[in-house]
Amino acid sequence: MTTVFVVGAGRFGRNYIKVLSGWKAAEPGQWPTVDILIVSRTQATTAQAMAAEIAAQPTCPFKQVIGVAVADEAQLRTALDHHQPDLTCIVARDRVRGDDIHAAYALPALDVGAVLCEKPFCRAGGEGAGLAQARALLDHPRADRFGLELPMFVMARAMFEDPRLESMLRQAKRIDYVWQKPTDENDLLDDLALHPWSLIPNTWQTNVEQVTPIPGGLEIGLRLQTDGPDRRVIPATIRLSAGGTFRGMRIDNQPFGFVFAEGRLQLRAYDAPWSALIGGEIPDPPYQCQLAVANPLAQHIQAVLNHHPLVDTHQTYRSQQFLEAVRGRP
Question: DSSP class of residue 97?
């Protein structure tokens, strides 16, 4: 009997539930069977109503759906001790503590079973507190059961398995990343930065050179050093901003975009000016699909359930180092 616990079954948590609910119908026999699903909200009545709604669906694949209240670490530990989940998905966000709740919840959940954590592992304060939390994760006796959910890591891996795209990246004279969101709700750095960062191969060295405020956001200047015998230095930028929806990158003069469509994450090559794309001037630009990868969230869940997380504790620590380096820049 496999039990999965989704902690924080609100806006983002529903994506996890959707993936878990659709496994059997999508690819029978290809995914681990989940027998019991536990969902949490801060109020017990809300969680129980959600559980009843999921269980009532004609296509519900679970033998049992349970709703529990989790508003703090004490309630989480009670639920963990009682249900002993095989996998706990940490998707909660606290109105006061923000994403720091991820670290607070992940460590006790690891005492019981595997953990898949929404990014970031914790907020970047610039003073290194987040690194201390990440070090505690590295030292956990079950550290090998932890995964950080970075969807673009799945795309990056696919890009480097494509000989043409790998060559294009390695020979680039410059790489620019742009990640936008419609509103300035929540912190831009914590919310967005790890998406483009995780597109950079973890075997490359990434140095933060400068951080510059821009209208509605910030721009991070990077110095990337490739791996292998022909090491090269590539200047790069990551631009994070509110007020738009474009998410993509430019390798030299070739713009690309990342779009989730038809259940897959697509890499699209655009035939349009970069400035017009990031400015939202072309709502439906012409494109050619270069890659399409299966739902990254589903891949992350499957990998952690199989005890082979895609983004392990060492990569999680590196992600926190990057956030702290950016936050610590004047």
Answer: T
Question: Which tokens belong to 50?
Answer: 């959600």
Token code pair at residue 19: 């993936």
- Give the model confidence (pLDDT) of 200-257 as tens digits: 998 999 999 999 999 999 999 999 999 988 899 999 999 999 999 999 999 999 999 9
pTM above 0.85, yes or no: yes
Q: Are 7 and 70 in contact (CB under 8 A)?
A: yes
CA distance 22 to 161: 28
Q: Which of the 8 DSSP states describes residue 95?
A: T
List the chain residues with pLDDT less than 50.
25-26, 28
Return all residues near 239 (Cβ < 8 A) that are at least 6 apart. 176, 177, 178, 179, 214, 217, 218, 219, 220, 278
Distance CA 51, CA 38 (A): 8
Enumerate the H helices of the chain as residue ranges: 13-26, 44-55, 73-83, 100-110, 129-138, 151-161, 163-170, 188-192, 194-197, 274-278, 296-305, 313-327
Q: Are 234 and 172 in contact (CB under 8 A)?
A: yes
The dihedral over CA atoms of 111, 107, 4, 196, expressed in degrees to the nearest 10, equals -140
Q: How many helices (H) and strands (E) does the chain have?
A: 12, 14
Amino acid at 239: R
Tell me the C-alpha distance between 92 and 168, whole Å: 38
The predicted structure's pLDDT at residue 29: 53
Q: CA–CA separation, 297 vs 22, rounded Å?
A: 12
Amino acid at 92: A
pLDDT in tens, 27-47: 545 667 899 999 999 999 999
Check: CB of residue 303 under 8 Å from CB of residue 147: yes
The residue assigned the tokens 């006790």 is 108
Give the span between the Cα atoms of 201 and 179, in whole angstroms: 18
CB 124 within 8 A of CB 189: yes
